[in-house]
Design a protein that fits this description.
The complex is a heterodimer of chains A (549) and B (341). In chain A, 49% of the residues lie in helices and 16% in strands. By secondary structure, chain A is of the alpha+beta class. Chain A has three domains: 5-39 and 233-509, Up-down Bundle (Rhopdopsin 7-helix transmembrane proteins); 41-230, no CATH class; 510-548, no CATH class. In chain A, helix 7 (300-325) packs antiparallel against helix 8 and helix 8 packs antiparallel against helix 9 (378-418). The longest helix of chain A is centred in the last third of the chain and has 41 residues, at 378-418. The two termini of chain A are 20 Å apart. The model of chain A is unreliable at 464-470 and 506-549 (pLDDT under 50). Chain B folds into two domains: 3-262, no CATH class; 285-340, Endo-n-acetylneuraminidase fold, CATH 3.30.2460. Chain B has helices at 3-11, 31-37, 43-51, 53-73, 100-123, 141-145, 150-163, 171-189, 216-228, 296-299, and strands at residues 21-22, 28-29, 192-197, 207-212, 231-236, 244-247, 261-262, 285-286, 305-321, 325-340. Residues 12-26 and 134-139 of chain B have low confidence and may be disordered. At the A-B interface, strand 1, strand 4, strand 11, helix 4 and helix 7 of A face helix 5, helix 6, strand 3, strand 4 and helix 9 of B. Chain A: Residues 231-503 form the Wntless-like transmembrane domain. Chain A: The chain crosses the membrane at residues 14-36, 237-257, 269-290, 310-329, 341-358, 383-407, 440-459, 479-500. Chain A: Interacts with wg; in the Golgi. Interacts with Vps35, a component of the retromer complex; wls stability is regulated by Vps35.
Chain lengths: 549, 341
């Protein structure tokens, strides 16, 4: 009686397969650690202060830049300090990205994928102005781009917006004449694509008494922008991994589906789930990033969120269905389908939909205005928190439910195990084998999940330690990222292989050596529900038999 | 008195870049001439200095900030970090005494130079800020793995520039080297770590962290408390081993690299001393109600004080209109000041 490959594979072959997969896993880890640089890097850019050109507040064709022909003249800190009103409404903070290094003019490469801007505000020491910890700063931000072949003054508008941001400042030092403030960073913009070579950010801080703009923020004397981009080297390594995994997973899926269709029965639910899982992984693996090298695709951040979301949702659903299909108390006569699991899966669906809604509200809107952030308004913050709390609750419910189901499976297995000694030797060996391999796979899942969590935590800690000499040879963060990515690919690859229907006949030595097995098989075959017993996974048969018992 | 501070004084004649440098006769000089004119510089330093005018600007900026911070930190003390006018040095001859004050000046200047160079790098003003991360020397490394943080370059620059002229065998040289390093450590230790999450949906599955340069005021305050707890040291030379500084009093805590050290006791800053370039506290503004060092009793060294009343005019109640008008009123108020006799 044929079952899945997992049941029919000899221990030796299984261990060879597992060893090969473990070697691949180690390779993924090492590629990330030894070849790839850190996933992301940053450049701190201190804003140069230039005098504004009068009348430019409504004219977005006016650009002030600090390098190249026609650059603006910088205003020194002393000039501003000496001015009565600190040159309010007369100055522009200019950030030209990227800044040059070692005498070379650097330019952004399309391999660097995306750009995130974070603003740091330095407030002058002054005892007269008390900066409220919830003061709001109004920023007139304008972003322009230029390419290498353009002339130095040829900046083109990318986005412009008048943004309000909370200035979360704490006074860190108070003496009788002055106080120092330490302010939280302000997220300013997120670009989903880094299509152009140079970017220019002009920031004005409009002060207006009637409109109550920027009156209670003190004298902002420095603005520092941190431009965060994905490292080109990391993108290259990541894309290479995707390029390798993509065809392999597609091939194994075709092989699997072909094998399922060789059977006379229609595919079982678990087989459908496996193919969905493979499809979700293929969607995640698809090396779409190659397209960004040629086309401007600002939606890549949103798309990669969606791709990851779809993959995780499918994986979580798969685990639920997997546990449910091995419940051993399955009602007979009823064909299982995904819709039988709607109660179980609702937590996944609710969680995913709320995360998707949050993502559309944040990154979706950023497609239109890269300066937008849902967190900057009260309503937006509440909305975002609602979505996130909803997703968190769903995750909790899901986890509890999954644990409950797995516990139930194990309880049923141990119940049946107690009756194993009364069975015939051959049948016992067979059942023990199935249970052992089922547990083996559960263990693999658990190890993968645990490694992901550990990898995540280690990644955070590894980066938390600052090494001054920076002589660390292994980039732990990258290693964990590629390691975890490779691990889930290998995990699903293994699942698809091991759960493919086997064409092998029932081990012959069992058939020939023990005659009693024949009668028991007859018993199996005569289960009332088994319409086509010879082609259903023996694990499922086992469960049905158990239920029948 | 170190060579570095004499150079800084000469840089004091520096004017905005459009005008350039002026020599004593008011003729303009190129930055290269300025660098070459510093006879005290080592060849290495002269090479660093001649690389660009921007570097010279950043160095002089650092020196100015160091002086400002020192003066702010000591504005209430008998010694207020001010040299008499027309002295050939920024801080006066007090630096010939290897006192706590000299220790502070060295520390704040080396920190301020690192600070100023780092900021110049972040502004994109300096062309030769490094992009290395020591390892992974690959071509096109910017595209591959980005650049290292500017503070590494700033601190390294400060080390190369200020430490170059100190000898590591004399007591004074060792003291200056120690205090220079203590200043840079005070800066580094006060860098604040900031992180930004940029993982899936903005979650913290991916995070990038960087260090933020502290305001120079924070560093000068920290060095101020190190100044209060500075260690009195002596030179210990055993044969075969390099000379080292050791604490003078074995009961005091062990010397660590971030401490300030001094060799000699401070001179009396109460009275004018033309030889040492000490201004004395005559004419200094004191606080009548304070019992601390800024109080009139201590600051005036028991000589008493006189009170003066001044009228001050300031702009106030400003109305801003975006864009771009500002209307202010003039307010005047009286201010009472106490001056030491």
């Amino acid at each position: 009686m044929p079952g899945t490959i997992l049941e029919n594979l000899s221990t030796r072959k299984l261990s060879i397969l597992v060893t090969c997969l473990l070697i691949c896993q180690a390779l993924c880890f090492l590629i990330g650690g030894l070849i790839a640089p850190l996933p992301a890097n940053h450049q701190n850019i201190l804003g140069m202060v230039c005098k504004d050109i009068p009348g430019s507040q409504n004219d977005t064709s006016v650009w002030l830049y600090t390098r190249g022909k026609g650059k603006c003249n910088a205003v020194s800190q002393e000039e501003i300090e000496q001015h009565d009103v600190k040159m309010a409404n007369q100055i522009v903070f200019v950030f030209q990205m990227p800044i040059p290094r070692e005498g070379h003019v650097l330019d952004y490469s399309r391999w660097q994928q995306n750009l995130i801007g974070v603003l740091q505000v330095d407030i002058a020491y002054d005892n007269d102005v008390l900066v409220d910890s919830h003061a709001v700063v109004t920023i007139d931000a304008r972003l322009a781009y230029r390419n290498k072949e353009d002339s130095d003054y040829d900046w083109k508008l990318y986005a412009t917006s008048l943004e309000r941001r909370y200035l979360d400042c704490q006074s860190i030092h108070v003496s009788n004449t002055e106080r120092l403030y330490s302010c939280e960073t302000i997220p300013l913009f997120e670009l989903g694509s880094l299509h152009h070579d140079f970017y220019l950010l002009n920031i004005r801080l409009p002060v207006d008494t009637d409109m109550k703009m920027n009156l209670d923020v003190g004298h902002i004397h420095d603005l520092q922008l941190t431009a965060i981009y994905q490292n080109g080297g990391f993108t290259k390594v990541w894309l290479s991994l995707k390029t390798i995994f993509f065809p392999i997973v597609v091939a194994i899926m075709i092989w699997f589906w072909h094998r399922v269709h060789l059977l006379q029965r229609s595919p079982a639910l678990i087989e459908y789930m496996l193919i969905y899982l493979g499809l979700a992984l293929t969607f995640l693996n698809m090396p779409l990033e190659y397209l960004t090298l040629a086309f401007d695709m600002p939606f890549m951040l949103l798309l990669s969120d969606i791709r990851q979301g779809v993959f995780y949702a499918t994986l979580l659903s798969f685990w639920l269905v997997f546990a449910g299909e091995h419940m051993l108390i399955q009602e007979t006569g009823k064909r299982s389908a995904v819709k039988n699991y709607w109660k179980h899966l609702s937590a996944v669906v609710v969680g995913c939909i709320s995360l998707f809604a949050f993502d559309v509200c944040e990154r979706g809107v950023q497609l239109r205005n890269p300066f937008y952030s849902i967190w900057t308004s009260r309503v937006g913050t509440n909305l975002a928190l609602t979505f996130i709390v909803l997703a968190g609750i769903s995750a909790g419910v899901y986890f509890l439910f999954l644990c409950y189901m797995i516990w139930k499976v194990f309880r049923n297995i141990s119940l049946k195990q107690s009756s194993l000694p009364s069975m015939s030797a051959a049948r016992r060996i067979h059942y023990e084998g199935i249970i052992y391999r089922f547990k083996f796979l559960m263990l693999a899942t658990l190890i993968c999940a645990a490694l992901t969590v550990i990898g995540f935590i280690m990644g955070q800690i590894a980066e938390g330690h600052w090494k001054w000499d920076e002589n660390i040879e292994v980039q732990l963060t990258s290693a964990f990222l590629t390691g975890v990515y490779g691990m889930w690919n290998i995990y699903i690859f293994a699942l698809i292989i091991l759960y493919a229907p086997s064409h092998k006949q029932w081990p012959t030595e069992l058939n020939s050596s023990n005659e009693r097995i024949a009668s028991e098989e007859i018993e199996f075959n005569n289960l009332p529900s088994d319409s086509n017993p010879s082609e259903i996974s023996s694990l499922t048969s086992f469960s049905r038999k158990a239920a029948f018992d | 008195m170190t060579k570095y501070h004499r150079i800084i004084l000469q840089l004091g004649t520096y004017l905005p870049p459009s005008i350039g440098f002026l020599d004593t006769n008011g003729n303009s000089k190129s930055h290269n001439d300025v660098c070459q004119s510093f006879r005290e510089l080592t060849n290495d330093q002269r090479r660093i200095c001649s690389r660009s005018q921007k570097i010279l600007t950043a160095i002089s900026q650092g020196a100015r900030i160091g002086l400002e911070e020192c003066q702010h930190q000591f504005k209430n003390s008998r010694w207020n970090c001010t040299a008499p006018p027309n002295t050939p040095s920024l801080y006066g001859n007090v630096m010939s005494i290897k006192s706590r004050e000299t220790a502070y000046i060295h520390a704040i200047n080396s920190a301020a130079l690192a600070w100023s160079i780092t900021r110049a790098c972040s502004r994109g003003e300096l062309d030769d800020c490094a992009c290395d991360s020591n390892i992974r020397k690959k071509p096109r490394k910017w595209q591959w793995g980005g650049c290292s943080e500017d503070i590494n370059y700033g601190v390294g620059f400060s080390r190369r520039f200020t430490d170059a002229q100190e000898s590591n065998s004399s007591a004074a040289g060792l003291m200056n080297l120690h205090n220079n390093e203590a200043g840079r450590r005070a800066l580094r230790a006060r860098m604040q770590r900031v992180c930004k999450c940029h993982g899936m949906s903005g979650s913290c599955s991916l995070r990038v962290c960087w260090r933020r340069l502290p305001p120079m005021r924070v560093v000068s305050e920290a060095l101020g408390s190190l100044y209060d707890g500075a260690s009195h040291v002596k030179l210990v030379q055993r044969d075969g081993r390099p000379a080292k500084l050791r604490r003078r009093d074995p009961d005091h805590k062990k010397l660590i690299k971030s401490d300030l050290v001094y060799l000699e006791d401070s001179p009396d800053y109460c009275e004018v001393n033309t030889e040492l370039g000490i201004l004395g506290t005559r004419g200094r503004i004191c606080n009548r109600t304070s019992h601390g060092i800024d109080g009139c009793r201590l600051l005036c060294c028991g000589r008493g004080y006189q009170t003066r009343i001044r009228q001050v005019e300031e702009k106030c109640n400003c109305q801003f209109v975006w864009c771009c008008r500002v209307k202010c009123q003039m307010c005047s108020h009286t201010r009472e000041e106490h001056l030491c006799n």
